[in-house]
């Protein structure tokens, strides 16, 4: 789906705004922080100041994208100060989130805010009624890719990549590397065209690769080994694998936000496994991450059984059950789902 018809309004709305807030989704990843940082730097370049904000903290390795002197605010650390900034805003740019459901309690400040709201996103089924302008394209690798194509079309850049700042270009590259898992998935022709421009602009891909993919703490590496050897269960004649990450293991391995990023993909390395789930105990719910190979649709499974959704090969959701019941619930849901299919 491509909903680009509002793109021409984007820069005029930004041009007429003075108090701009840029936000991204909860548990921010490289695409959320990358697109926030890229937008921040581009706005700065065109003489616009913006405040960047996310619901909760993000992994340390992404701090290489944090704007110098003005780091991204963490809503949960100081909701009152963030609420004041949101209340004073006349424009809120929402990146890499399909709707207010992706920003947890920050939604209580964002939804009633009088500011105009722009969505720039690549997820399925954006909540269009929550925004004044929706720029949504699912046929791109990442929000960062979509954002750079918009920036290239802007009057200030007019297609000339050499005019894009290195900070902006580096942030965009981080989002593309993250969401494609270092060019393993979600690659479109436009993805490589955009990345080619970024290389021409002089981004340091090796540096970003090491920051994003080779920056595990020792305990994170040990947690990965533990989950694979002790907590992975393979069901459905070897075609579905799930991993349960409970609070006891989080504590044992000094778990920090982002430590389980990418773990859901690991069981897909097994030849017969077509679908993988990571089921993580959180406060009051179990977070579900789902991945699949080929035509197996985890989006419909997430919608039907996990109060969630997403893409065909990558979806997520939440279960409002105890972690001790999760294995039984997931196993019976899978049996039912495959029987119907
Ligand atoms: Mn993304």
Contiguous low-pLDDT stretches (5 residues minimum) are none
What is the subunit arrangement here?
Answer: single chain
For the record, what CATH class of the largest domain applies?
Alpha Beta
The distinct ligands, each listed once, are: manganese (II) ion
**CATH homology superfamily of the largest domain:** inorganic pyrophosphatase (n-terminal core)
The main pleated sheet reads as: 7 strands, mixed
Mean pLDDT: 95
SSE map:
Elements: E1 2-3, H1 7-15, E2 20-24, H2 30-45, E3 50-54, E4 73-74, H3 79-88, E5 91-95, H4 107-110, E6 116-121, E7 133-137, H5 143-152, H6 166-179, H7 189-201, H8 205-213, H9 218-230, E8 232-235, E9 240-245, H10 247-252, E10 275-281, E11 286-292, H11 298-305, E12 309-310, E13 314-319, H12 323-340
Parallel strand pairs: 2-3, 2-5, 3-4, 5-6, 6-7, 9-10
Antiparallel strand pairs: 1-7, 8-9, 10-11, 11-13, 12-13
Manganese (II) ion (MN) binds next to loops.
Describe this structure as you would to a colleague:
- The chain has 2 domains: 2-213, inorganic pyrophosphatase (n-terminal core) (Alpha-Beta Complex), CATH 3.90.1640; 218-340, Diaminopimelate Epimerase, Chain A, domain 1.
- It has helices at residues 7-15, 30-45, 79-88, 107-110, 143-152, 166-179, 189-201, 205-213, 218-230, 247-252, 298-305, 323-340; strands at residues 2-3, 20-24, 50-54, 73-74, 91-95, 116-121, 133-137, 232-235, 240-245, 275-281, 286-292, 309-310, 314-319.
- It is of the alpha/beta class.
- The longest helix is centred in the C-terminal third of the chain and has 18 residues, at 323-340.
- Helix 2 (30-45) packs parallel to helix 5 (143-152) and helix 6 (166-179) runs antiparallel to helix 7 (189-201).
- The strands form 2 sheets. A 7-stranded mixed sheet has the order 1-7-6-5-2-3-4, with helices on both faces.
- The chain has 12 helices and 13 strands.
- It starts with a strand and ends with a helix.
- The chain is 38% helix and 18% strand.
- A hairpin with a 4-residue loop joins strand 10 (275-281) and strand 11 (286-292).
- Bound molecules: manganese (II) ion.
- Residues 31, 96, 122, 142-143, 179 line the site of manganese (II) ion.
